[in-house]
Amino acid sequence: MSLELMLGTAARAALRAAIRVALGTLSRERCMRVLCAAAVIALLTGPAYAQQKSVPQYGDVPADKTPSEIEQDRTAERAYKRSLGNIPDQTPTDPWGNARSVDAPKAVAKPSAAKPRTKTGATAN
Hints:
Layout: H1 3-6, H2 9-22, H3 28-51, H4 67-85
């Protein structure tokens, strides 16, 4: 497998730039630093690039599932539904229950609403 196939596009661009800089009129020490930096970038992006799923291109039709994949999906769905049945019913929790008193609060007597005053013809200021 060639080096360019193993590397991602960013790593290839970094490697090409490092080679271009290294071939220029830079000091030998600087060229080695750039080349080492490009090599580190290339080595780190290779595995990360390999972990990604291939992104479908525009217009690509998704591949049909094989019968074994369909059966695996069904068994996973059944196992999920069975596991939901194993969860016990949860009672409502009261996180502030410890802060409240044990006795229920007593209802406060509301004062009766007073009749609104009716205005007469004269107002005093």
